[in-house]
Structure formats: C-alpha cells, structure tokens
Amino acid sequence: MTDIICPLCGKLNPPDLDECIYCQAPLKTGGFVAPSEDEDKISPILTSSEKPGEAENLVPEPKASSDLEQNIPDWLKQTEANFLDQSEAKPKETSPDELSEQIDSILTPSSAPPNPQDNAIDEEWLASLLDEAGVGMPEPPSLQEETPDETQEASLEEQEPEIYQEGSEAEVEGAAEEELALPTQPSEKPEWLKNLEASSKIKLEGELFGSEPVQYEAVVNETPEEKAQEQPPLPEWIAKPGSVEPPPSPEEPETPIAPAEIPNWLEALRPTDAVSPTGPVEDLSGADIVTAGPLAGLRGVISAHPSAIRAQKPPTYSIKLRVSDEQQARLEMMEELLADEEKPMPLPSQPIITTRNIFRLIVAVVLLLPMAWMIISGGKRTSAPQPGNIPGVVDFTQRIQLLPSGVPVLIAFDYEAGFSGELNIAITNVLTQLMNKSIYLTLVATTPSGPALAESMIKNASLSMARTPGFYSNYANLGYIPGGTMGLLGLATSPRNLLPYSLQIESVWAEAPLNAIGSIKDFSAVILITNDPDTARIWIEQIGPQLQEAGTPLLIVTSSQAEPLIRPYYESTPAQVQGMIAGLVGGVAYGRTVGNIQQNGIWDAFSVGITVSVLIILIGSIANVVVKSLPASKKKEN
Amino acid sequence: MKKILPITNAIIAVISGSFILLGYFFPGVFGGIQSTLIGWAIILAAFALLLGIFNLAIVHWKKIGSEKSSNINSIVLLTSMFITIVIVGISGPTGSWSLWVFNSFQVPVEVSLLAVLAVVLVYAGARLLTRRPKWYTILFLVTVLLVLLGSVPLFLIGEITPLSIVRDWLAQVPAIAGARGLLLGVALGTVATGLRILIGVDRPYGG
Fold first, then answer.
1. What is the ipTM of this complex?
2. Which of A329, B83, B160, B182 is found 20 to 30 A from A344 (Cα to Cα)?
C-alpha cells in the first residue's frame, strides 16, 4: 500500500483519496507518495556494522520509476540536472569549510578517543538531542573533529526529526538539564545517557529499529544535493516542527487518525499559492549555490553552515582620523600650551637702581676706599701687634732659629690661593728665614694647587734674601700627594716610595741631604701651611705621633678662622704643635721678631677695614631698629 | 657570579682593613703590608682624580653639543682646560708660563671671591635687624662685634685690652666647646662605621 503525504499538513493519506482527510488539501497535485510496505525495512547501511567508508559507497540510486520521482515537479528536476552538470564539470575543489575543518583539526590537540567515529556519532547525536530540547551544549574538543565520513554525518543529521518523533521530549529535557554534568571524556557514556539511549529507539553505530520508516532510510542514503532537490520548499508555517506529528510507530497498533477540521478563518488565511508546486518560481539562476552543509547544492538559499566559525581575516579599517579645521586649530593651541610649559619662565626684571642695591654699593665703597687708600699711601698709623701677645709666634721663631744650617725641612703647602693675602706675609717671612739659613726645603702639598703655590712663594721669598737675592735652588718640590688622609699616612711611613721624584723628574732621594731621610721623622722640622682646621687635624693625627717620637717639631702657619681649633693642640701638654703663626696678626708679629717690618700698608688697611666693618654693622643695625620703631613702619607692618 | 663577587669584595675589604688596623698596633709585623696597601690606595685615589677631570670634560663637551641651554660657560671651561694643559705640558708644572697662568688667573679669582664674601657679610650684618629682632639674633650680632673689635687694634684707637680678653674667651671656650663636641661625635661615628666595615656588616663597596 502506498500512502500519499499531504503537502500541507504532512500526514499520510490513503492513495485513493484526492483530498487530505486531515486538512482537505488537494493530494494529487502536491502530495508525495509514501514508501510502500516492502520498502519499510531497515537499511543495510544502518543495521550492519559496516564501516563508514563502506557505507559512503553504498549510496542507493534513486528509482526512476518510483511514484516519488514521478511526483517531483519539473522545475526541481531541471534544477537537479543543472546542478549535476555543474558539479560534474567542476573539479573537486577544497571549499572554505573544508579548509576551516582542516585548520581546526590541526589546531585541536590530538586528544581524540580511540574510536573518533563513534565518539562523533555520540556527540552529534547528543547535540541534536539537546538542540531539540532547546538547550545549548558546550562543544567538547572531540566535537570539533569532524569525521571525514560525510554520509554518516548526514545520516545523523537526518535522525534529528526522528528523535523528535520518538516522543522522548521529557527525557531530552532531563538530559539537557544534566548537560553540565557531562564527562569530559567522550568515550565513556554517563548513566543518564545510557538510560536515554535505552529509552530511545535509535541505536548508535548505525543501528535502527526495523520499524523505522523506509522513507528515512532513503533520505539517509541520499546525498544532500539529492535530498534538497527532492523536497519541495515548504512554507515556514507548514514546516514548523511543532505542527508535525510523528508518524505512528509500527509497533504500536495503528489507530485511525481522525480527520482534522480546519476552521474557516484558517482556511481563509491559508496561502494556497505558496503550497502550489506549479506556482510562479523565483528566478534563481543568478544566485549562488550553497557548497557546504545540509543545504549544499541549493541555489538562492541561505547556507545553514555557520559562517561564524570560518577563519576569516578581519576587515581592516583606516585609523586615520577625520579632523575638522576647528579641531585642528584646538590641537595646535593645545600643543603650544604644552610647549610653553617646558620653557623656563624668565625671572621678572627688577630695576637696577633700588634702595637695596644702593645700600650694597655704599657698603662696598665705604669698606674698600679706606683700605685702598691705606695700601696706596703705605701708612703706618696703627701700632703693630706685639709677638709676645700672639700665642705661638715666639715658639715658632725659636724653633726656626734652632734649626742647623743646611738641614732638610719639610714644608706642606695645603692652603687655597684665596687665602694668599692673609698668609703671604707670614709665609714669606718664614721662607726668608729658612733661606737665610740655607735650609734644604722639601715642598709637598695635599691640594692640587699647592705645588704651584709653593713654587711661586719660593720665588717671591728669594727676592728678599740677604745673600744672592732672587735665586734659591736648595729645595725640592715633590708635588701633589693624592689620597688625603691615606696620602699623609703614606708620607709618614715611606716618603721615598710615595714621592720618588721631584716635579723636575729628579731623583732627589739619592742626593744629600734627602738620602738620609727614611721616614718623615728624619726631617729636622715639619712646617704645615693651611687654612683648613680639618687638614691641620689630619696632619696632627697622622704625622704628629712619629714626630713626637723623634722630637721633630711640627710648626703650623694658619689663618685666623682655623686658629681657635688648632690652638688647643699648641697649648696642650705635651704640645702636639710646637709653634704657630695665625693669620695676618701672627704674620706681622713674626715679621717683627725676625726684623722684617715691611708691611706696605697692609696692616693699616686691615685695621681700617675691621673698624669700618664694625661701624657699618652698628650704624645699620641702629638705623633698622629706629626705622622699625617709627609709627609709619608699624602701620605698614600691620 | 652575582653571589661570589660581593663575598669576594667583602673578604678583600675586611682583610685590608684588618691589616691597616694591625699596622698601627704592631708596626714591626704588619708595617710592611700596611705601607703596601696604602700605596695601592693612593694610586687608586690619583687615578680617581684623573677620572674626575676626564668626566668633567666629557660632561661639558656633551653640554656644548646639546642645543638646549646656553653653553658659553662650558666653552670657556673646555677652552681654559685645553690651554692650561698645553701650557703646563710645554712649560712644565712649575715653569714660568705655568706660574704666570696660576698667578694671573687662579689666585686673583679666588682672592676676589673672598673679598666679595667680606663685603656681603658686612652688608648682611647691617641688615640683620631689618626683620623683627629675636634674642638670638641680637646675641649673634653682639658676638660678631666683640670678636671683630678684639681681634686687631682699631684704627686711630688702638688695642682695647678688655675686648681682646673677651674675644679670646669667646674663641677658646664656647666656640671650641661646640667644635670639639662635633669632632667627638664625628670620631665616634667613624669608629662605629669602621667596625661595621671591618666585620662586614656595612658594605659601601656594594654587595
């Protein structure tokens, strides 16, 4: 018996009827003939355990003489013929979907189960179940590996409505709820899946119940192109899954289906033109043919294959901003503002002639003019200091006078050139005394400018010598001692190793009188000239112990600012410093002891400068106090 | 290597410091080693001075290359350095040309700076009471005046003996007391730092 499927409601009708007993739609024009009973057998592909590759080769040829093919409209046959011609003419090309599948297979780690085909069947089948239940399913890694057997894949896709027809909706929903508990190993089936599989009439590995309709077997064996051509496009409201009732199972007793009654309003709304296979057909000759997916081969339809998974290069967009003239002007203004921030702001210009500047000028003039006048005039109005009143001067003089003629004396020039005005008188007098006694001068320095200062002072002092003025060669300038404290310690322990040559590159230690010098204590005296109390302290600490051990005197010529700190070393018992000349006062006093009273007005200038300084400070302070006590200044402060 | 190098530095520093220290206590035994180590340190210090001069020249040379700031000072410095090196190299460190450069430029510049300092100090002393006077401001000003008046015989007045006595007392008692206190603190800090370096706790050389 060959039933006719109603093109409108999809239900089976007896072949002798002209209209559908359910919806009264005409069956002769648009209905499909249902498969006969002898064809209602299990497909050997699905029932046998053949491999998918073998099943792929067993695609049955459509029966040309069947009633089903006879009912295919002409336009569909023409479309099928065109497609077959094109597909035969075209060489098999690798579609983008296949490329994406290959890329996915490469990128996917090879964690496939031992039987990937079975696993794919399980996962696809399960995914279809969950999709029908309306629940998404996360794709396990194994699902991304598509099996090469497209025939089996198509058969699994065709099982979707069958599963739905089996009426296991409740179980599918239960499975959808348990989807989160799916095991990550696809080779092991969970308990719920086994139960679901047991309750379902679909068996995996191609097994189907014998009661399955033959029409599905034929569809499974067909290629997607053939399937798409054989089925006429149905309206969406007809092809709605919810409106399709599952066919009666052969196991269940066939119950007569009561004819449905279509209400009048639905009959009036029914688009009879849409279901008519002979209606006007849209010209799809210019449309593209779907090359992949379940709709492969159809022209003018939207591909069911998701295009989102295709590996496509993202489109490039231009990053060039479209800036208007106004925006450009504001941008330039912003850049100018930022550039101005980096520029140093010039200090506000102040007028040159201010009360403060005038006061500074008055102070300088009042201070310098009397001093200059005293130096120019060479006046001696101020009494010179008495050597006995200046501590250290007498002892210093005695130590110099006690030195034998021609003995070596070490002189350290460790003062800055700025203190030359204060120290030069004392240094010149000391050097003159030493030169008059033909003392062998050994010059060293712990400051970089010391050797030049020493050489310059030797030349100046030689001019005032009693004998052969202007020339004195009984000295050795050993130069600069680097290292500060370490240098002095090295000088104390081994001066020969530290300074083996003079500045004239002469080996002075091999000649007399330095050939008798082994250490610093072998000198007859050590004279330190410094303006820094710390330098004096270092000399006293590093050199002093060895000198005291040998009884060698340490004499210091220093400035007035260092004198208070050095003086305790001189006044201590036993004295660590045996003589001291401090500042201009000490130099003038020492000059008086040695008979050199030439001052060239320096002493008077010094006295005038101190007196004027005291007067300026006193007058300025009193004036400030008076000005501040005036009522006007108090109001200004308030 | 990152662990070995600091340990090696620490060992070298501790051993060197210990030999130098022992050289003071036992000069007969450790005097030779002490002298040798000090000689090495002096050579390193001299080389550091040369490096400093070279670095100064490099910095100002780069400053001239940059177009940002005015580089006239750098040009003057490098020119002066080059001329001085040439003159001293030709004439020698104590030659007549070298002494002429020294006495004509360096000595007057340094003396002038001190002379300007004297004028500025006098001006600052005169304006010390411009603001609201405090007791310590007045004390400072009185001390300055006493020391100045007691240092030298005043012009047309002569020496004021009481002021000289006061000046000596101020210089030798309060001033020295403060200075000695500072020196004692510095000495104690130096001893503590030296001990920390000797036992390797403080490593200023890195590590």
1. 0.87
2. A329
